[in-house]
């Protein structure tokens, strides 16, 4: 079972902020990610100002290809009239 919950780190201990139902002493795998606060996002943007443009250029390379070009005119194939 995988579940995402909010937690707080304080004095070296991770404390769940929501009720969790596990057996006492049960071992778990925990994945930790920081909250995406405005401050966190601003710091990430300052750290790498080119990240957005890299993501967009990578997406464009995947998007523009002959195999998927048939979807460029999907309205025609599905007889959708622009209105």
Short descriptors:
2 strands, alpha+beta, 83 residues
How is the secondary structure organized here?
Elements: E1 7-10, E2 13-16, H1 38-47, H2 51-63, H3 74-77
Antiparallel strand pairs: 1-2
Strand content: 5-15%
> Based on the structure, what is the oligomeric state of the protein chains?
single chain
Helix share bin? 25-40%
Count of runs of 4 or more consecutive helical residues: 3
How many domain regions? 1
Summing up helix and strand content along with how strands pair, one would put the structural category as: alpha+beta
Q: What would the principal axes of the Cα set say about the shape? A: elongated
Rg on CA atoms, Å: 23 Å
Kindly report how far apart the N and C termini lie: 47 Å
Query: Average pLDDT value?
Result: 78
Give your account of this protein's structure.
By secondary structure, the chain is of the alpha+beta class. The protein has one domain (7-66). The chain is 33% helix and 10% strand. The protein has a two-stranded antiparallel ribbon. A hairpin with a 2-residue loop joins strand 1 (7-10) and strand 2 (13-16). The radius of gyration is 23 Å and the shape is elongated. The N and C termini lie far apart (47 Å).
